[in-house]
């Protein structure tokens, strides 16, 4: 008899947890874009990225930028930099940089880290 009660309570608990999760997801989907706050990203020192070997590139939309290929770098250093950017969800739209950075960094595709010279307040004259 007790095992049936425990089984019932476990099923009830699990179903309520699923309902709560679904409700939270639904509420999040209804919230305006400005209401969704992202936690601030604390940037590592730029040396973490500047030790990589970057190759200059030129694009019609991006202009001048650089790419660090995994195969052309020390694997440990490249992997560390890649993980930082991946954890920060660094994309071309949401680039990674810190207060005193000279470049911003992002990921696109496999085995590549991109960077571009910062313009504006963070760039040194």
Supply database-style keywords.
37% helix, 3 helices, four-stranded antiparallel β-sheet, 125 residues, alpha+beta
* N-to-C SSE string, H for helix and E for strand: HHEEHEE
Fraction in helix: 25-40%
- Give a count of the beta strands, DSSP E runs of length 2 or more: 4
Beta-strand percent range = 15-25%
Report what the structure shows.
The chain is of the alpha+beta class. Helix content is 37%, strand content 18%. It is built from three helices and four strands, in the order ααββαββ. It has a four-stranded antiparallel beta sheet with strand order 1-2-4-3. The radius of gyration is 22 Å and the shape is elongated. The termini are far apart. The mean pLDDT is 86.
SSE order and pairing:
Blueprint lengths: L1 H29 L16 H4 L4 E5 L3 E7 L5 H13 L15 E5 L4 E6 L8
Antiparallel strand pairs: 1-2, 2-4, 3-4
In short:
The protein has helices spanning 2-30, 47-50, 75-87; strands at 55-59, 63-69, 103-107, 112-117.
């Amino acid at each position: 008899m007790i095992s049936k009660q425990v089984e019932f309570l476990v099923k009830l608990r699990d179903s309520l947890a699923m309902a709560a999760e679904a409700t939270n997801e639904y509420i999040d989907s209804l919230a305006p874009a400005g209401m969704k706050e992202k936690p601030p990203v604390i940037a590592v020192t730029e040396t973490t990225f500047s030790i990589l070997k970057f190759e200059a590139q030129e694009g019609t939309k991006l202009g001048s930028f650089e790419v660090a290929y995994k195969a052309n770098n020390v694997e440990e250093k490249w992997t560390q930099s890649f993980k930082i950017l991946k954890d920060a969800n660094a994309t071309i739209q949401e680039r990674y940089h810190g207060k005193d950075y000279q470049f911003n960094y992002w990921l696109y595709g496999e085995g590549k880290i991109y960077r571009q010279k910062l313009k504006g307040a963070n760039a040194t004259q």
